Structure prediction request, 406 residues.
Amino acid sequence: MDRRLLIINIESNELKKDILYESREDAIIRGAPEKCSIGKGNSSGLAYIVTRSGYLACWNWNDDKLHRLEDYRAITQQAMLVNFQSLQLESGLLYTTASQIKVVSGEFNKQDKLGHNGSVSACLFTASNQIVSTSEIDKTVRWFSFDGLKPLAQQIRDRWEPITICQHGKTDKVIVGTSSGLIYILPPQGGIDKEQVFEILTEPIVSFFYAGEDCVVAAAKSGKVVRFNLSTKKSEILRNSIMFHEQRKILPAGNSGLYWSVHINDTPKGRQSVVSLELNMNKGEQVLISKDYLFDVAVSSDAKTICVAGEKTLLWRKFQKKWEIICHRNTPISFVTFLGKDDFIGVVLREENWIEIWRITEGLPTVAAVEFDADDKATCLLAMNNRIVAGFLSGNLISLQLYGNS
Prediction:
């Protein structure tokens, strides 16, 4: 399909302007066109396009400026457009789906923001303290400096689209996980060696981590977990798929076990959130079973302390043969990460637009806090040592550093 827009004078049949929007560098727009609309009145000189991948863009064809607008849906969502037309009394666009009516501005007075052109799906630190993030919506993986979030590199992956990433040892490369169960190593620059693209699962990778010795441990939504060696290309099943099971996350367990598992079980008594330490293929320790939804779970660097973000924030640690709560706080949070020497946690408050640092002691007191845009929403949070990075629904990133002995 011809993925371009054309402005044609219908009286003379003259081609006035055209644009191959996928090849432009000023805005990332991907996908075959679904609908388009040419501006009239105060929107004169503008043309709007929406693609089958959910991208929405405005093209000022007089000045040949392409501007990406807020996506009308995520690539994995289903939302049929009912109406799509430019406004005449003001510069903008009206579109409707079965569930919403929305007006978006077509103004060009804003520069593209730093970060992604879509919600941040995952973020991490490399061994050299670079920040790497990915967005399932704009299909990019981006590298930034920690100080000032200076853009360092960008990879656009229209094929083998990234949905999550993890570290690749002590390098600045990342390992990418896809919706088709593939993984591959992605450097900041250069292409992908097709011989290094591996199908380790037959369904989307919901969570994975680098386990050392060139191995990754990856989980599918069905609960299947595999360990894959990137060097030998050998795969080992750590757990088979489980009926009535929804895997949400896995985390490193260090010397304590194979991995930590965060999942949901459907039982005759209803849905249960479970946090368990998996010791082998047939044995695990269930640390927490709750009827409440768990928003996030984090594990300390020694993998022996876990923090659970449910209706309350709970820290668990094993003493002898028993798991015990060592700290708790009633404040609801949506994301959590350990930082410092595992003596602090970073959290995103669920009902307020604040990132806070809590000391791991009785009551989990707040020692530092940073406010973010009230119109935005955090989508991921990660720390390494005393450094934190957060990704947002808007595509923005924030980097923070904890100083002193608070």
